[in-house]
Amino acid sequence: xxxxxxxxxxxxxxxxxxxxxxxxxxxxxxxxxxxxxxxxxxxxxxxxxxxxxxxxxxxxxxxxxxxxxxxxxxxxxxxxxxxxxxxxxxxxxxxxxxxxxxxxxxxxxxxxxxxxxxxxxxxxxxxxxxxxxxxxxxxxxxxxxxxxxxxxxxxxxxxxxxxxxxxxxxxxxxxxxxxxxxxxxxxxxxxxxxxxxxxxxxxxxxxxxxxxxxxxxxxxxxxxxxxxxxxxxxxxxxxxxxxxxxxxxxxxx
Length: 253
Hints:
TIM Barrel; disordered N terminus
């Protein structure tokens, strides 16, 4: 209808892509559940929203109402800002997780930029773990496998994120044979009240140990969830129970 304002996401996305809202890189700790020590940092990109608060771009990247091309442009902007931040303020004592939208892997521009980003890093590529969510229905599994081999040729490592959120997530994990798996918050929430989910997380812990891959439970928010994850044998955890994400450079890393 004429005179209607554009959707909120479209307005916000335009302001981000035009540079009106500048990206800020945050870091969230990934902690060893046995010793309580920080083992890695996940890089998060946030932008100032109209209400003045810092907001994640996750909803924009997952909004199917936003065209794939615009989501890729947004992802490239976010990933680029993370690598530029790491070049200025490198994390030398921990592994570094960087989120990548699987759509970006299909675009040649991503690979051109990635080589430059990796070359400019003051830390070795094997300390970078690219975190991939489950691909969309239009992405060919064989192509994703080829992308993963190409990423490894650059010395990077891979993580499969969001395990437990999609019907194909286990198959996605099997195809990529990642170096890390990350269990979604939906399996961790109220874990202490769900013996079934606790048994599932415990089985995944045994799988991860056998395959020698890292295993992270995301979204741990309470001490009860933390204790249940420990009891299930999960080696690594992430979530607000360990503190909120902080702008890069304030993490003590």
